[in-house]
Amino acid sequence: MDSKALLQLTVEAADDKRAEDIVALNVAEVSLMADYFVILSADSKRQVQAIGDNVVDFIRKAGSDVKSVEGRTAGEWILIDCGDVIVHVFQKDARQHYNLEKLWADAPLVDVDQWVNA
After folding, report:
1. Does the predicted model carry a pTM greater than 0.85?
2. Which residues lie closer than 8 Å to 11 by C-beta, 6 or more apart?
3. Confidence band for 84, pLDDT divided at 50, 70 and 90
4. Which of 4, 67, 100, 115 could form a disulfide with 81 if both were Cys (CB 3.0 to 4.6 A apart)?
């Protein structure tokens, strides 16, 4: 699966569990870690965990590999390493605190509107 298809899959999986404020950054030109970062918010620990689990399930069902999942037990910030796409699932307060969008401000935004239900 190419990185753009993987990006779409992760966004759709997050949206399926009502993730909020989904942002995708094209970090290919500013980082060697991945092609895309997906950053999103949830209201509670349980929702953060549900979104994280759903992203992992969607990726595995599509036949792709999840390299690692960090932070699932705490449920404040889950990092899912899908190789070319890294997903950050935050509780709202943690997202504001870490402000990854500002940290990676040199990376252009990717329009994900066509993959989310309004």
Report:
1. yes
2. 22, 24, 38, 112, 115, 116
3. very high
4. 67
Residue type at 102 in one-letter notation:
K
Report residue 54 as tokens. 């759903």
pLDDT tens-digit profile of 36-74?
999 999 999 999 999 999 999 999 999 999 999 999 999
Structure tokens belonging to residue 93: 């307060």
**Domain residue extents for the chain:** 3-102
Q: Does domain 3-102 have CATH number 3.40.50.2000?
A: no
Please return the burial class of 40, using the count of CB atoms within 10 Å of its CB with bins 0-12, 13-18 and 19+. buried
The closest alpha carbon to 39, from 118, 96, 115, 83, belongs to 96
